[in-house]
Write a structure and sequence with these properties.
Layout (H helix, E strand, L loop, with lengths): L9 E2 L6 E4 L3 H15 L2 H11 L38 H13 L4 H20 L11 H7 L7 H17 L4 H19 L3 H8 L6 H12 L2 H9 L3 H8 L10 H18 L2 H16 L31 H18 L2 H15 L33 H11 L6 E3 L3 E4 L5 E8 L2 E9 L13 H6 L15 E21 L9 E4 L2 E2 L3 E3 L2 E18 L2 E6 L2 E9 L2 E5 L7 E2 L9 E3 L3 E2 L2 E2 L4 E3 L7 E4 L12 E4 L7
Parallel strand pairs: 4-7, 15-21
Antiparallel strand pairs: 1-3, 2-5, 3-4, 5-6, 6-7, 7-11, 8-9, 8-11, 10-11, 12-13, 13-14, 13-21, 14-20, 16-19, 17-18, 19-20
Helix pairs in contact: 1-16, 2-4, 3-4, 3-6, 3-16, 4-7, 6-7, 6-9, 7-9, 7-10, 9-10, 9-12, 11-13, 12-13, 12-14, 14-15
Length: 634
């Protein structure tokens, strides 16, 4: 690794640890996604690869004259963007391999399926002559150079490379790395024939994450051909004006830019060249800090960047799901580099109001966009008939959700996301260390609660488990620390930006002041077998549209609320004080507190508000005009 990042925060996996999700909303969403991943037939995922390699064809029956209809007929195939006639055919397999590498750490059957798929890709590569393993034809790239009409072949090929490289990095599959390396040889030879101008023209046609794949290959193999490809795939027409402070984003395709910048981020980690980090920081400033985000933390409308500070006319097709995930990846990277709280807050807000809000809570299907205008309705994809890019991103996003929660450096451990889990290292700071992260849902709220045995028991037990009389306005996290032998290190707990008061910290039931530093509670002591209880006050707040400050969205802690309505409704109250027009509603359901449920008070029209992440097929709005009483509407 580049020495300049060696001292930065590292992930659990990078430090030899293992994370296991435990009961709670995060695991529920993970399981929902895993069921979808397991439902996808590997033969269907491989079909375009086998067809391209001449290993599959279909004529409708077993014979040319008489014979039974083939059981492998179109009614069982994948359709939409995965259709055998689509330019994007095969893109989902790469996402599937990437997600399966992670899920396979906990599911042997998924791991075995992924190994078989990698072996089948090797067979396709051999049939293609030993290098090409794409699901689309090499001729697609010649059409790209000629300026012909072809839909994003680099995008598709990157997914295949990404899946193979994740199978190597996470699952340890050496065959996957060999396939990716041989595939790169084809691109090395092809790009060598192109002039710099031709390469720049090609890079203007959605190359997405190719730069990141070449950076990974350089890191894993040291092959100088990967270094050549990095130089050739350096998108100077984008990076140089970005570094010069020019707005090259507005009204341009958002998701491809983030993928390219993720490549720059990986290159800084691999090479240490300052230009790559400068590109990442310039991009974040332009895309997020200066531009501003929607109340959800997301960006873009209709797949292109919204103008800086101008959102009110672009509430109809907000935050493409893929962009949400890739910006979360970039935020997680910047957090590892800097340890700054703001990147962890960005990640959290996009998890609950993006990744979760754009996954159907019952079916697990994705929503391509998340409209925020009055009368909006989410449009859900279907399991095998659509296969948008978001279907593939969905698989990865939920499979990797634990990776941004806990990090390690020389001084100690940072918990940036309170994901219910057990994290164990066989050898950290000189011995075995184990963390458990849980939520106390008796005395605090948490999005996505459901019926559990623990909750059901809580309404039967009396003095043993007293409950608050009303829904508590706080989140309560319980962190257990167990060390093989007494060990001194820092334990750093993120204090979110949505914290609405002074937090309370207890260690083994005793109040502890702790040092608050730059959004972190730092607990530095000798650890052996302690339990920390962190109570973070939360409450309602508003976020205004920057160009329509009288139109506000309401948040409960980090959770964006949606008003159930099919028309724009003007509310009467103080735009900065949601309690002037909202009151708690349906706060308790059997054995758990319902989070983010409110109703209007003192209004001409009664509305209910619920978490945006729990909306299924209802009509809703997120931004509402709020007028102070007695003030006329203009």
């Amino acid at each position: 690794m580049n020495e300049s990042v060696a001292g930065r925060l590292r992930t659990v996996r990078e430090t030899g640890g293992r994370t296991t999700l435990t009961e709670g909303p995060v695991k529920d969403r993970w399981l929902l996604n895993t069921r979808y991943l397991r439902s996808l037939d590997p033969d269907n995922l491989l079909r375009p690869y086998r067809a391209q390699a001449g290993l599959w064809s279909y004529s409708g029956s077993w014979g040319t004259t008489v014979g039974a209809t083939s059981p492998d007929g179109p009614e069982s195939w994948h359709w939409g963007w995965e259709s055998i006639t689509s330019d994007l055919r095969g893109h989902v397999l790469g996402h599937w391999l990437s997600a399966a590498a992670r899920v396979g750490l906990h599911d042997r059957e998924v791991a075995a399926r992924a190994a078989v798929v990698v072996g089948e890709l090797a067979a396709c590569q051999r049939a293609n002559g030993g290098r090409w393993v794409g699901s689309v034809a090499p001729a697609s790239f010649e059409r790209l150079v000629a300026g012909g009409q072809v839909w994003a072949p680099h995008y598709v090929v990157h997914k295949t490379l990404m899946g193979l490289l994740d199978q190597y990095r996470i699952a340890g599959n050496e065959e996957a790395l060999a396939i990716a390396s041989a595939f790169a040889e084809w691109f090395h030879e092809w790009t060598a024939r192109l002039s710099r101008e031709q390469l720049d023209d090609v890079l203007d046609r959605e190359t997405g994450g190719m730069l990141e794949s070449w950076a990974d290959l350089l890191a894993y193999t040291g092959d100088e051909r990967a270094a050549d490809l990095i130089e050739r795939y350096d998108r100077r027409r984008f990076f140089e004006p970005l570094l010069a402070g020019v707005d090259v984003l507005t009204n341009k395709h958002a998701n491809t830019h983030v993928a390219e910048v993720l490549g720059a981020a990986r290159l800084w980690e691999v090479t240490g060249q300052a230009r790559w980090r400068d590109i990442v920081e310039a991009f974040w400033e332009s895309a997020v800090d200066a531009r501003g985000t929607y109340c959800t933390g997301g960006s873009s409308c209709g797949e292109v960047w919204q103008p800086a500070g101008r959102q009110s006319a672009r509430l109809h097709a907000v935050q493409e799901h893929c962009l949400v995930y890739n910006l979360m990846r970039l935020a997680a990277t910047l957090f590892r580099w800097t340890g700054e709280q703001r990147y962890a807050d960005h990640w959290e807000r996009n998890l609950v109001n993006g990744i979760w809000a754009q996954q159907h809570p019952d079916t697990g299907m994705p929503a391509y966009f998340l409209p925020l205008e009055p009368g909006s309705r989410k449009q859900w994809g279907r399991p095998t008939q659509d296969f948008w890019c978001c279907h593939g991103t969905l698989l990865q996003a939920h499979a990797s959700v634990d990776e941004a929660a806990v990090h390690v450096d020389e001084a100690g451990i940072s918990i940036s996301q309170y994901v219910e889990s057990t994290v164990a290292w066989p050898d950290l700071f000189g011995g075995r260390v184990e963390l458990t992260i849980a939520t106390d849902t008796d005395h605090g709220v948490a999005l996505g609660q459901r019926q559990t045995w623990h909750g059901a028991a809580g309404i039967q037990e009396l003095a043993a488990r007293p409950l608050p009389p009303r829904r508590p306005d706080q989140r309560v996290y319980v962190v257990g620390v167990r060390c093989e032998r007494p060990t001194a290190f820092e334990l750093r707990l993120r204090l979110p930006l949505w914290c609405a008061g002074s937090p309370d910290v207890e260690i083994d039931g005793k109040s502890c002041r702790g040092e608050a530093l730059d959004g972190w509670i730092v607990l530095s002591q000798v650890w052996s077998g302690q339990q920390i209880r962190l109570t973070i006050p939360s409450g309602l707040s508003t976020v205004a549209l920057p160009d329509r400050p009288d139109h506000v969205a309401v948040l409960d802690g980090p959770i964006v609320l949606a008003g159930l309505t099919d028309v724009e409704t003007t509310l009467s109250g103080d735009p900065a004080d949601p309690s002037s027009f909202l009151t708690p509603d349906r706060e308790r359901h059997h054995s758990w507190w319902r989070t983010g449920t409110y109703r209007t008070v003192g209004q001409s029209t009664a509305l209910r508000f619920v978490p945006l992440a729990e909306i299924r097929d209802e009509r809703y709005g997120v931004y509402f005009p709020v007028r102070r009483p007695g003030r006329s509407q203009r």
